[in-house]
Design a protein that fits this description.
The complex is a heterodimer of chains A (551) and B (61). Chain A has 551 residues and is of the alpha/beta class. Chain A contains 19 helices and 20 strands. Chain A has helices at residues 17-32, 69-86, 99-102, 121-129, 145-151, 155-163, 179-188, 212-229, 264-270, 280-287, 305-312, 326-338, 353-367, 409-412, 436-441, 453-466, 489-502, 517-534, 541-549, and strands at residues 5-9, 37-42, 57-59, 90-94, 111-117, 138-142, 167-169, 195-200, 234-239, 255-258, 273-276, 292-295, 318-320, 377-383, 399-400, 423-425, 446-450, 474-482, 507-511, 537-538. Chain A has a 7-stranded parallel sheet with strand order 3-2-1-4-5-6-7, with helices on both faces. In chain A, strands 14, 15, 16, 17, 18, 19 and 20 form a 7-stranded parallel sheet that branches. Chain A has a 6-stranded parallel sheet with strand order 10-9-8-11-12-13, sandwiched between helices. In chain A, α1 (17-32) crosses α13 (353-367), α7 packs across α9 (264-270) and α9 (264-270) crosses α10. Chain A is elongated, with a radius of gyration of 29 Å. The mean pLDDT of chain A is 91. Chain B has 61 residues and is an alpha+beta fold. Chain B has 2 helices and 3 strands. Chain B has helices spanning 19-31, 57-60, and strands spanning 2-11, 37-39, 48-56. Chain B is flat. Classes of the chains: A alpha/beta (551), B alpha+beta (61).
């Protein structure tokens, strides 16, 4: 049995955000369950990020940039042996899956989770299309529902997040300053009555070769100089970050620089104005305070900073400067200094508790066999005509078409429909002019349809025409088995065995709408008895949709 | 703030068989809280892998 150990595997190129998140989660995991061992594996160029680590750390070089294959193999072999010795029950990666972590022999049978902070819409879609999510037992989305909705996902990703049980929203995770931390930075930086402007670009690394950080800090030094000459009572503190490699602006009467501030989150929260590159972690730390924000987006890896900054600028007290240019920054900084303090963003608590609880639940799953033995399962739909012709007790677990769980599509398209089902049974061919948005507006996310007959032809043409998953509608085909002359229990079982040979969760539709009630009762009783004896589980619409939407 | 100590210099071309024992020792030290971190990120321009163990000073004081 694996240990009660969790390894948090972090891949971090230029920033500290992933490590901060790992530390916050490690700390909360230990608080929730002191018996759990947590070990952080990172790829940080500076150990500064681990100054307040809440767990033992194994720090690797950035694995993408090793000088030779021999160094890479030796590093990964040593890591593999260490993880073998740790024998974790759960491995958690953060945001960027690393193929080297994926291929470690010591983690092959380990339960896996991905903690995914915000990435831009198309990057999310690329993960889905490339099958990146398939490697994980659970994907924790570290954002609020509102932020996820504002960001927007492709319809396919939207379906996945909404319908798959593997995706969980755990809220944003970042540090929020305590009163003591705020007091500490106020004392340390002698913050008094003057307006404090903090300038920061995370850990100071550049995503690409555009010297963003140097341009930002030198431009803000110009802004400070101009403010000094014009008598603006503001003090500028440039927190360069340990990865900063550009020229350092000289200290002046109203400008100071520092390489690293372990309480940067507190500093951002006591500042009057924060001029920042809106990388994920620093942005959320700054959003937790009341400082007026000047967001200076840069080209980034999967973060879509320009679009995100533009969205955020709809909130009061958030300005965007699209150019790293001293003239533009001067104007916006002056506006920011004149603006009222920003209201606190309540959805931005940064609390890691939900994520830690979810990971502890995963760890439990890694150490316990399933509570019920694994049995073959199927989805069985019975179309018996009017619902009163078949009492659900005759076939426990089967789904009846036309009921609350699975209403007829014809009913959903009726004006005034007020149901809330997520799935519909296509009892009619889908009208070619039917807009998928209309279905989504009525709550429908999945259409179950037969694999044969006129309804199938109509649904098939419609789903192909609109590329239904691309419109946020999942199409699930069911094998149609007609109850008619010559039908017997063997007809049913033979077909079912064939389906089980090729599908993990077959969906079979028993179309009994044309048989007399007495015959229907006879067949259904026979099938129910056989299913009971065969220990075959029947799953409902929700489980079928969850399984089919997953990757 | 952090005490660091180089505890091994491994020739990556010849040390494969030694790494398992080294790994066991490193995990033992982490679990025993003798050290807070194992740092492998030093990359000299030759064939060595530098293994550093680190300990925060406040813990030792």
């Amino acid at each position: 049995m694996p240990n009660r150990s969790i390894v948090l595997l972090v891949k971090n190129g230029i920033g500290f955000g992933h490590i901060r998140r790992a530390n916050l989660i490690a700390s909360r995991l230990r608080a929730l369950d002191p018996s759990v061992e947590v070990i952080i594996v990172s790829q940080a160029a500076s150990m500064d990020a681990h100054a307040d680590a809440a767990a033992p750390v194994i720090n690797l070089p950035l694995l993408d940039r090793l000088p030779s294959n021999a160094v890479e193999r030796a590093t990964l072999t040593l890591l593999d042996h260490m993880i073998e010795e740790i024998a974790p029950g759960l491995a958690v990666e953060d945001t960027y899956p690393d193929p080297r972590y994926q291929s470690l022999a010591s983690l092959r049978e380990c339960r896996r989770a991905l903690l995914l902070r915000r990435i831009e819409t198309l990057a999310f879609e690329r993960y889905r299309a490339d099958g990146a999510f398939a490697r994980y037992d659970r994907i924790l989305l570290a954002c609020s529902r509102a932020d996820l909705a504002a960001e927007g996902l492709t319809p396919e990703c939207d379906l996945l997040v909404e319908l798959s049980a593997r995706f969980l929203l755990v809220g944003p995770i970042h540090r929020c300053a305590t009163a003591a931390e705020r007091r500490a930075v106020i004392d340390r930086h002698a913050i008094g009555n003057e307006e404090l402007v903090i300038v920061n670009a995370g850990a100071g690394g550049d995503h690409f070769d555009d010297a963003y950080c140097e341009r930002l800090f030198l431009a803000m030094a110009d802004v400070a100089s101009r403010c000094a000459s014009e008598g603006v009572p503001a003090r500028f503190l440039l927190v360069l970050g340990p990865y900063y490699a550009g020229d350092v602006p000289p200290q002046t009467s109203n400008l100071a620089t520092m390489r690293f501030e372990p309480l940067l989150h507190a500093l951002l929260q006591v500042a009057r104005v924060a001029v920042i590159r809106p990388g994920h972690n620093v942005l959320h730390e700054a959003l937790s305070g009341t400082a007026v924000l000047v967001l200076v987006p840069g080209i980034s890896w999967m973060e879509g900073q320009h679009e995100h900054a533009k969205r955020l600028s709809a909130e009061p007290g958030i300005f965007v400067c699209d150019r790293v240019d001293s003239e533009a920054l001067y104007e916006i900084t002056r506006h920011a200094l004149a603006a009222a303090p920003r209201p606190v963003r309540r959805s931005n608590a940064g609390d890691p508790t939900a994520a830690a609880q979810a990971l502890l639940a995963e760890l439990d799953l890694a150490r316990q066999p399933p509570s019920t033995p694994l049995r073959p399962a199927m989805f069985l739909l019975v179309h018996a005509g009017p619902p009163h012709r078949l009492a659900s007790t005759w076939l426990p677990g089967a789904t009846l078409a036309g009921t609350e769980d699975l209403p007829f599509l014809s009913a959903i398209l009726t004006p005034g429909y007020a149901g809330s089902a997520r799935a519909a049974y296509a009892d009619i061919p889908l009208p070619p002019a039917l807009d998928p948005e209309m279905l989504r507006a009525r709550g429908v996310r999945a259409i179950l349809h037969l694999d044969n007959g006129p309804e199938h032809d109509g649904v098939s043409a419609w789903t192909q025409h609109y590329h239904a998953p691309g419109c946020g509608i999942l199409s699930i085909e069911m094998y149609q088995l007609r109850v008619r002359q010559g039908f017997s229990l063997t007809t049913f079982t033979n077909r079912l065995v064939r389906l089980l040979e090729t599908q993990a969760l077959p969906a079979l539709a028993l179309d009994a709408s044309d048989v007399p009630a007495a015959q229907l009762e006879h067949h259904v009783a026979a099938i129910a008895g056989w299913l009971r004896d065969a220990s075959l589980s029947l799953v409902g619409v929700r489980e079928l949709v969850e399984q089919r939407v997953d990757v | 703030v952090i005490d660091e100590q180089v505890i091994a210099e491994v020739n990556v071309h010849s040390a494969r068989k030694d790494l398992a024992a080294l790994a066991v020792e490193l995990v033992r030290r982490l679990r025993a809280h003798e050290v807070d971190a194992v740092d492998l990120s030093r990359l000299p321009p030759d064939h060595r892998m530098i293994v550093v163990v680190a300990r925060r000073q406040q813990r030792s004081s």
